[in-house]
Amino acid sequence: MIKFHKLLVGAGMCALVSIGLASHVGAVSLPENDYPTSTRADYVFACMQVNGQTRENLMKCSCSIDTIAELLPYKDYEEAETVMSVRQKGGENVSMFLSYKPLVEKVNNMKRAQVEAELRCF
């Protein structure tokens, strides 16, 4: 009977520890500026296309997007990328994307983050 009681107490303690760990794990949250994996991967692929397909450049390009993510909220990054994409298409409809101050500022903020990333990582 005593062995059975010890077994129950041990099982109960394990259950409590498991519940405590599970609730702690559930409480862990992602950083506010966390970028989706696909966005980080796209950046690294494009960076390596420009800088070379080496292990060293993989590390530098990964560092670069991590630095940008640290400095620029994902929403701002996504908006700046959209503006830059539209600008590349050209045409008369693009003029707003070249001169509208809030959009210009978003692109400038991203460029500043990219420069900082280049200084830190390359």
From TrEMBL:
Keywords: Signal. It comes from the Bacteria. Residues 1-22 form the signal peptide. The keyword Signal applies. This is Secreted protein.
